[in-house]
Write a structure and sequence with these properties.
It is a single chain. The chain is an alpha+beta fold and 394 residues long. The protein has three domains: 87 residues, Beta Barrel (OB fold (Dihydrolipoamide Acetyltransferase, E2P)), CATH 2.40.50.100; 74 residues, E3-binding domain (Dihydrolipoamide Transferase); 220 residues, Chloramphenicol acetyltransferase-like domain (Chloramphenicol Acetyltransferase). The protein is built from eight helices and 22 strands. The strands form six sheets. Strands 12, 15, 18, 19, 20, 21 and 22 form a seven-stranded mixed sheet that branches. It has a four-stranded antiparallel sheet with strand order 1-8-6-3, with no helix packed on it. A four-stranded antiparallel sheet has the order 5-4-2-7, with no helix packed on it. Strand 16 and strand 17 form a beta hairpin. The radius of gyration is 27 Å and the shape is elongated. It starts with a strand and ends with a helix.
Length: 394
């Protein structure tokens, strides 16, 4: 018998939530198959099987809080043969067996388990079966009654006529994001300064060298590498922006770990480009794309989203015209990028149309004065509008 245990969490992670079981009791698994997913307040861990075998039991239900290294089930090592008997999953003489998530809903809604048709292995009742049963029952009830009673269409959705409501618990990641945002508001004196930048010079470079860049590096050149390098140049000129406050001390960082805010299905994550000042444009672009892909898949590692000395958030990909980004403690600054809109501006006393972007720089006023904040953002603007200086390091 092989023990199925929760992975050992880093010291910064207290506990986790068993999101779901990917394998059922009695199911054959191979080494490397994902048995379960465990969500912490930072990342989601996949729990792989270390052996070939059969899931013997599951000691913890989906949604339960689990501790680092906790025993949550057993795996019977080896393969199942035709003549080998597996521990019975269902017994025709007894009531049907419901999976943990389904069982919780059945108990909460006081449902008749015998009235639910199971579609899982060996007739087990899945969460989807319960929801389908509830939906079918509520539809029938609505057709036979002219009075709009309160019924339940899904496990946690209450319908009152045409005014639906849904109550679901926060994911641990969402709760952690909320906690950190409130912490930033409570502990830092956050101010935001704004500017606008003409994106035409960057767009000209991308238009001219895009094909060559993609052919050599296997990825299209985006705007973010230009902003990352512009930020690094500005951080070098204004080191207090790359610093943080710890108790009564100011800690100046001699390295540049740049966080890139990425939206995922489970919430906002900020993976870190370590020592970004040592990387070229292609390396930055490829790393950002890798982060984005793995963020959507929930496969970022804990160390990849921990730390950072400065962050960049690009609301423009969602169509944002302007916003005030919130600090990611203990960092002292964050740059907000926005969408690019063609607008009339004045150049050499003439009105011309240019692709313009609003920039927002939020900073901790306890550490950074307004003058430095404005100059920091102006330096980023100058770098973007004169990318040849940035690329040449002058």
């Amino acid at each position: 018998m092989v023990e199925i245990k929760v992975p050992v969490f880093p010291e910064s992670v207290a506990d986790g939530t068993l999101l779901c079981w990917h394998k059922s009791v009695g199911e054959q698994v191979k080494s490397g198959d994902v048995l379960a997913e465990i969500e912490t307040d930072k990342v989601v861990f996949e729990l792989p099987s270390m052996k070939d075998g059969v899931v013997e039991d599951q000691l913890v239900s989906e949604g339960a809080i689990v501790q680092s290294g906790q025993l949550i089930g057993h795996l019977r090592e080896g393969h199942v043969t035709a003549n080998e008997k597996i521990k019975p999953i269902t017994d025709p003489a007894t009531a049907p067996v419901a999976m943990p998530a389904a069982q919780r809903i059945i108990e909460q809604q006081n449902l008749d388990i015998n009235a639910i048709q199971g579609t899982g292995k060996d007739g087990r009742i899945l969460k989807e079966d319960v929801e389908k049963h509830i939906q079918s029952t509520s539809t029938t009830a609505s057709k036979t009654s002219s009075t709009p009673d309160i019924v339940t269409a899904k496990a946690d959705i209450s319908l009152n006529g045409q005014r639906p409501q849904k109550r679901v618990p926060m994911t641990r990641l969402r709760a952690r994001v909320a906690e950190r945002l409130l912490e930033a508001q409570r502990t830092a004196a956050i101010l935001t300064t704004f500017n606008e930048v003409n994106m035409q010079p960057i767009m000209n470079i991308r238009s001219k060298y895009q094909k060559d860049f993609e052919a050599k590096h296997g990825a299209r050149l985006g705007f973010m590498p230009f902003f990352v390098q512009s930020v690094i140049d500005s951080l070098k000129k204004f080191p207090e922006v790359n610093a943080s406050i710890e108790d009564d001390d100011i800690v100046y960082h001699g390295f540049f770990d740049i966080g890139i805010a990425v939206g995922s299905k489970r919430g906002l994550v900020v993976p870190i480009i370590r020592d970004a000042d040592t990387l070229g444009m292609a390396e930055i672009e490829l790393q950002i794309r890798d982060f984005g892909k793995r963020a959507q898949e929930g496969k970022l590692e804990l160390e990849e989203i921990t730390g950072g000395t400065f962050s960049i958030s690009n609301g423009g990909v969602y169509g944002s015209m302007m916003s005030t980004p919130i600090l990611n403690p203990p960092q002292s600054g964050i740059l907000g990028m926005h969408n690019i809109i063609k607008r009339p501006i004045v150049e050499n006393d003439e009105i011309v149309i240019r692709p313009m972007m609003y920039l927002a720089f939020s900073y901790d006023h306890r550490l950074i004065d307004g003058r430095e904040a404005v100059q920091f953002l102006v330096n980023i603007k100058d770098n973007i509008e004169n990318p040849e200086r940035l690329l040449l390091g002058i």
